[in-house]
Amino acid sequence: MASQQGYGQFCPVAMATEVLGTRWTILVLRELLCGSTRFNELRRGVPRMSPALLSKRLGELETHGLITRRVDAESGAPAYRLTEAGEELRPTVMSLGSWGQRWLESQLSLRNLDPSLLMWDMRRNLKPEALPERRITIQFLYPQLERGQRKWWLIIDRAAETDAVDLCMIDPGQEVDLYVVTDLRTMTAIWMGIMSIQQAVRDNRLQLTGARELTSRIGDWLGLSPFAGEQKRVSP
Questions:
Q1: One Pfam family this chain carries (predicted)?
Q2: pLDDT of res. 1
């Protein structure tokens, strides 16, 4: 169903843009492609998007046949899943990210600092298999941020069947195995592949305190943006 304010062209590019070109739509698809299925999960991936607009975009994607909505019989909560048409957009969305990493200046990325999105991305890209087979608690501290966004905890339970990874903003009351102290800009640069962990430590912009089995292998378990490996084609 084409938008009433559409381009009025039969060209498939124009028709696809009418569906995908509305504000936030590609980012909602990004979250679905990353595995989010619940409304609150999607919100954590687009923290600056209002709940009302997210609901609207999900309804539009369902209308266009890109997602399905099913209500869980036990919890009553809806779950959103990509259809074949929605899943087929994966290479398109990934190509956009790769293009942005290659051709947009690093400084543009580092203007848009968001601790909620960064920690959510780190949580879902973390690699539990590179950690010891026990419960691990890692605290990230961003001293320059305001209270409420300064401290974050990642809890990885290797004893769980699915290697559960939880993200907390409230102290979980567990012994911390590793403290990671840095500033938000540095951590974002590391996540985006703009700065290496080794460089950040060498420049005293990243401090790691805790079990050596965690500090020595942080490059293995931390995980980076799926676009971090793209080589920049413009000056930083």
A1: HxlR
A2: 41
